[in-house]
């Protein structure tokens, strides 16, 4: 009975988020910080569940992992969010207004329909960006640091090189006229699904949920340390349905995460990783100079 209840945690969390935004007062929806606050509450809850229903002892979070993950969470909700708004969402919104583009009919759709459209659009872009990162040399150099993590925890979805974190945040939502509440509900729901997909929580959602949405089983296989080729599956960060549709889905689970020699990268090494070949060439020239 206890395990059955834990298995319902992911869908129950998403349902709670949807209910919150569906009935939230207008003044709450208009507060810019509310979407961040709801996301952090969900993240905190999932992280705490790791202490209640641990999945793998080898993924047990320690002080170093916690502080590193916390740094990336703060980076994500500040610098990465600012960069996305400044260099992508803002310019897209301005271009939309300049061209006179408008989709007022979207805001007239039912709440859950708008939520579903936002989730599908965001995840469709992320699926192809993620898949491209595994098949392009430079993009892989920005994404590889995320695969150097040696354990999965709720906050690990935030961990990565800033270039990758910016690229994976891009979407076309700014070009469409969604109501705030369903848009916020969609982003918070995607966040909660991602938290569980990275979390060291013993929760295996029902088949109807795992058919559409990514779970820790799917994503742990994507992070397997077996080989690089073994990670080229289950690209959906939150919606595994796209992997089923485009032939990249694999069933299974892995308890061993990491890349290459499974060396854990420091924050500085994560940031410098894409530039490592250039740094090494420069050091070689200086050594022979």
Report on the structure:
- Its EC number is 1.-.-.-.
- Keywords: Membrane, Oxidoreductase, Transmembrane, Transmembrane helix.
- It holds the Pfam family FA_hydroxylase.
- InterPro entries: Fatty_acid_hydroxylase, Sterol_Desaturase_Related.
- This is Sterol desaturase family protein.
- The chain has 289 residues and is mainly α.
- It has one domain (2-279).
- 62% of the residues lie in helices and 0% in strands.
- The protein has 14 helices and no strands.
- Helix 2 (9-23) runs antiparallel to helix 9, helix 4 runs parallel beside helix 9 and helix 6 crosses helix 9.
- The N and C termini lie far apart (69 Å).
- The mean pLDDT is 95.
Quick take:
The chain has 289 residues and is mainly alpha-helical. It contains 14 helices and no strands.
Radius of gyration: 19 Å
- Could you say which overall geometry the principal axes of the C-alpha atoms support? globular
Structural class: mainly alpha
* Mean pLDDT across all amino acids: 95
Taken as a percent bin, the fraction of beta residues is: under 5%
Write down how many β-strands occur, each being a DSSP E stretch of 2 or more residues: 0
State the separation between the terminal residues, measured CA to CA: 69 Å
Tally of individual domains: 1
Low-confidence stretches: none
